[in-house]
Amino acid sequence: MPDVDERKYATFVTGGAPRIAVSMVVGALAGLFLLATESQTRGASTDFNLTWLAAKAVLAGQNPYELIGPGKLHPEGGYPYIYPLTAAVFALPLALIPSYWATALFVSIGAGLLAFAVTKDGWRRLPLFLSMPYIIAARQGQWSPLLSAAFCIPALAGVLSAKPTLGFALLAAAGSRRTLVFAVVGGLFLTTVGLVLVPTWPLDWFQTLTATRHLRAPVLQPGGFVALLALLRWRRPEARLIALLACVPQTVGWYEVVPLFLVAVTFRETLILAILSSMPVLYEVWYGAADGFFDFTPRGFQMAAFAYMPAVALVLLRKNEWREASHYH
After folding, report:
1. Averaged over 172-193, what is the pLDDT?
2. DSSP states along 13-37
3. Which end is more exposed in the chain, N or C (fewer Cβ atoms within 10 Å of the end residue's Cβ)?
4. Segment 183-187 mean pLDDT
5. How far is CA 8 from each of CA 238, 239, 265, 266, rounded to the nearest angstrom?
6. pLDDT surpasses 90 at 274
7. What is the rounded distance in angstroms from the CA atom of residue 70 to the CA atom of residue 80?
């Protein structure tokens, strides 16, 4: 099958003003969605709330790794703060406003930037925002949408250090010198600021990670090895993305597969990934079959079968030719 012609399949090419307007609308809707679904807990049940608490602690001159987690001042559902301090440093401006509004703004920014990133040459990738993996990511205030945008926009690459596992996969897959430069400069800046504010944070973070048991690489899940078949098209950034993403430790939360939507080129491909990846989520919601972050075997197989395998199939239909991620999108 011939390679996908991006221009041929574009619904129409977006101009600057329409693209910005659509991105702002997507971002606003995502933020409003978070506000509506978090109206009872006021943001306390989101993943970003942990980063917000960490940023508040840093502003108060305290060590967030000593304050957040089971048996500590902020138990937060029994989960420790497993992010590096670079995430909290990045979120410092948002710590100046209440968690509820800060999380909504974070989700809105991530959605808007991702929409801007994937509409470089058409609207056809927008169905990803209707997929259950994205909806879960927005609902839980996750980093995956923002980091996925950084895969396509080199100037955002500094934020990849906020979640180094996913960030490393995205950076290595991008194959762009500009992305690498922005990632290194931005990462060094956030790391240095973190060291000035909390000198012991690298050791504290490492100790927290070693005690964490809910992270596992998808490639080690049942059927996960199929993701490595994407390396048959290793010259393509989306192929490297699939393989590398499958090799880094992560939860079995569906929000983790949001970067796989960057594989899609056409409206039909985006829709296929959105429908397939949403099916097991809707099944879990309807039948209550999931058991959270520690439901490794069934959830891991579902993610391999309904997210990774379809993404691999799409990539294998393309030629093995070199591209940069910023050119690809």
Report:
1. 93
2. ---HHHHHHHHHHHHHHHHHHHHHH
3. N
4. 96
5. 19, 21, 11, 9
6. yes
7. 7
- Helix, strand, coil shares of the chain as percentages rounded to 5? 70, 0, 30
Which residue type, as a one-letter code, is found at position 139?
Answer: R
Cα(140)–Cα(2) distance, integer angstroms: 39
* Residue 175 tokens, joined: 């194959």
The three-state DSSP-derived secondary structure of 234-281 is: CCCHHHHHHHHHHHCCECCCHHHHHHHHHHCCCHHHHHHHHHHHHHHH
The lowest-confidence range among 1-10, 81-90, 287-296 is 1-10
Give tens-digit pLDDT for 205-215: 999 888 777 78
Of the candidates 5, 49, 67, the residue with the CA atom closest to the CA atom of residue 198: 67
Task: Give the DSSP letter of residue 67.
Answer: T
CA dihedral 157, 161, 163, 167 (to 10 degrees): 50
Q: How far is CA 295 from CA 251, 252, 292, 299, 306, in A?
A: 10, 7, 6, 6, 16
Banded pLDDT at 8 (limits 50, 70, 90) = very low
Q: How many CB atoms lie within 10 A of CB 142?
A: 27
Other C-beta atoms lying within 10 Å of the C-beta of residue 290: 18
